[in-house]
């Protein structure tokens, strides 16, 4: 059983790159497709606390009902924003990764390298071709 969990959206390039970087370290993480299986409010609160993020900092604007719900307005409390994420999980930015070394919102994708317990096992290029890790497993 893996000690790494990724809150993943397979339709998101950044999320796919992060998952591939985790696998490039030799780990097979627990993959939670959060749009199919949204985290509970309690889990979301813990993820945010562990990552040092506020509810506003985890909100995703692009491709979500963010604008139509008026979530840019500073009047919304963290509790209200958490309610909105609960009702519309697409509002949660991704991917969030949990490892023994910490919890992070991994944007850009290479930030996952900061919390992976094992080194990269070889070269890695993002889907767009950008080199992230060289053939020796070192961050570029």
Question: What order do the helices and strands come in, and which of them pair?
Answer:
Elements: E1 5-8, H1 13-24, E2 30-33, H2 41-51, H3 78-87, E3 96-99, E4 102-105, E5 124-125, E6 131-133
Parallel strand pairs: 1-2
Antiparallel strand pairs: 1-3, 3-4, 5-6
Features:
4-stranded mixed sheet, two-stranded antiparallel ribbon, Glutaredoxin, 24% helix, alpha+beta, 140 residues
Description:
With 140 residues, the protein is α+β, with helices and mostly antiparallel strands. The protein has a domain at 1-34 and 94-140: Glutaredoxin. It is 24% helix and 15% strand. The chain has helices at residues 13-24, 41-51, 78-87; strands at residues 5-8, 30-33, 96-99, 102-105, 124-125, 131-133. It has a 4-stranded mixed beta sheet, with helices on both faces. A two-stranded antiparallel ribbon has the order 5-6.
Rg estimate, integer Å: 15 Å
Q: How large is the share of residues in beta strands?
A: 15-25%
What CATH calls the topology of the domain at 1-34 and 94-140 is Glutaredoxin
| CATH architecture classification name of the domain at 1-34 and 94-140 | 3-Layer(aba) Sandwich
**What's the CATH first level of the domain at 1-34 and 94-140?**
Alpha Beta
Poorly predicted runs: none
Structural class: alpha+beta
Major sheet details: 4 strands, mixed
Protein name: Arsenate reductase
InterPro entries: Arsenate_reductase (IPR006659), Arsenate_reductase-like (IPR006660), Thioredoxin-like_sf (IPR036249)
Enzyme class: oxidoreductase
Keywords: Arsenical resistance, Oxidoreductase
């Amino acid at each position: 059983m893996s000690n790494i969990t990724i809150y993943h959206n397979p339709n998101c390039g950044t999320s796919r790159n992060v998952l591939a970087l985790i696998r490039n370290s030799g780990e097979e993480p627990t993959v939670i497709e959060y749009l199919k299986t949204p985290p509970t409010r309690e889990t979301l609160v813990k993820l945010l606390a562990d990552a040092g993020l506020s509810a506003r900092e985890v909100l995703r604007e692009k491709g979500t009902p963010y604008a139509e719900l008026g979530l840019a307005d500073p009047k919304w409390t963290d509790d209200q924003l958490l309610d909105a994420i609960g009702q519309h999980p697409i509002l949660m930015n991704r991917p969030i990764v949990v490892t023994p070394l910490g919890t992070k919102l991994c944007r850009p994708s290479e930030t996952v390298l900061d919390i992976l317990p094992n080194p990269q096992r070889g070269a890695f290029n993002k889907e767009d071709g950008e080199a992230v890790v060289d053939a020796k497993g070192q961050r570029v």
